[in-house]
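Appendix B, example 12.
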Amino acid sequence: MSEETIIETPPVSRPAPYSVPALGAVGFLDAPDHARLRRSVAAAFTARGVERVRRRSRRMLAELVDEMLQDGPPADLIEAVLSPFPLAVICELMGVPAADRQGVHTWTQLVLSSSHGAEAGEKAKKEMGAYFSELTGLREGSTGEDVTSLLGAAVGCGELTLQEAADLAVLLQIGGEAVTSNSGRMFFILLSRPELAERLRAEPIHVTHLDLSFDLGPHYRPGGTLARLVSELLMDALLDGVPGLRLAVPAEEVPFKKGALIREPETLPVTW
């Protein structure tokens, strides 16, 4: 058996101040409250829970890649695949309806980016909290397996307050998007180093620095399984499924986002 190939990606940038929970918020609770909150959603972040969305995620990804191939090269890999796919996966896991996903994504980007200012970030966080409070309230007593259904069930049986459930949903949604948004940076590294991409086609993958985003102190680390799911599906669909996939411009001409929590390409022009 060959040794695993390791992609060591650069550490993430420091978060915008308003993207970090305030003292007393769910991100800083200690035992037994932390254990109570974590227990309420634990089932969604186990390997079994994430596998629940694997089949649907693979189908959604195949549709995005097929559409990109039909349109023909060149293409912006971020716009075509690497932005919509991870968002769809985390929203599927969270239980966010398809019609609401772009709005939730917009709120998350305002929270994660420092370029819009603290006022815009705080406003987005409050609006997202109100959204998840309503969505979770509608799912009280639910038997669903997604995060908001699990939170609704916990509220219904008195294990959590509705405010705690909404705050936790916001934290997990933001963390989920942060952990999956590493895809653009990962593919920039792979496509700017063709020899590494070729090696990955033949060897197992172990990606580091992809689940820092759920980690606020010792409290939240449920993102590793989700990150692996997204990374594995993208590797299969793009590295194996699109022979000849490569950058359409020199690596130094790829623009990167400014003021974002995670340094990633703004666009990723590719051809094949």
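Residues 118-138 form the longest helix (21 residues). The chain has twelve helices and five strands.
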